[in-house]
Amino acid sequence: MADTELPDAGQAYQCQPGCRPRPLDAAAIADTVGRVILRHAARIIPSTGAPAPPHLAAIHAHRVLARITIGTTPTDITLTWHATPMPLADRLDTERVQRVATARHLALNDPLRARELLHAALTGVDPATAPAHPLHAEAAILLAELQLRLGHSADAIAWATYAHHSTAHLHVPTHRRTLHALHLHAAAHRRAGHHQRAHHLYRELADQLSRVEGPYARRTLAAHATTALVLHALGHCQAARALLADTITIHQREHPGHSATARMTQYLSRIWHDCATKGHHYQDA
Question: CA of 3: how far to CAs of 25, 57, 251, in Å?
């Protein structure tokens, strides 16, 4: 299942391609799984002197669970257990896991504290040279997202680049975590004004999404639309207009009534106006 957001904010999961009318609340799933682990496998959770809350217990699920199958609600869960639990992580890894989990919980309401915890979790990790690691990649994604929200594009690029390369190494290029990191990598470069690099990354994202979700899926078309905006930023007015107009036509046909069509149309109008003002009527890529 892919990471997404609930309409009223908060992390969620949605199966592909959007098979549920409403995404499942990730916090509710983590709470249910964590309570089961606390009841049946509490021995795998490192002792911190206080009972572990369910959402932190759920961080250790991969050590005892091979599969989590979700039914119609977050509490309708079937768990498939490993025959033999995975070994307990060392103390440093345990502390990193707890900091990342707490940072994820705080990210929305206390981003500065969340950033502080993520920096602590990534102590000693150089994003330019560090090897791929699932926990470090997860922390890097969260940190890059926070740095973008806080307006620190350069720091966001460093961690988004590491997250992208790390997830691509740990998974296949079309894995949901890799695609999420690739999207973040592209957005960070775009925010920093590195439009040529952003153009390359958004095209790669559109290609991968087309393979996974189909050429007419909403996320694929959104990637094409953003590519058009980057082309406009590069000064390629005619190419930007053509790509965005084609994307709008497909979006209207495949997803009638969706609000993204109106937003794309507004962007197209702005591109026409800006290019006419600058005299770029005939410039092509």
Answer: 10, 20, 22
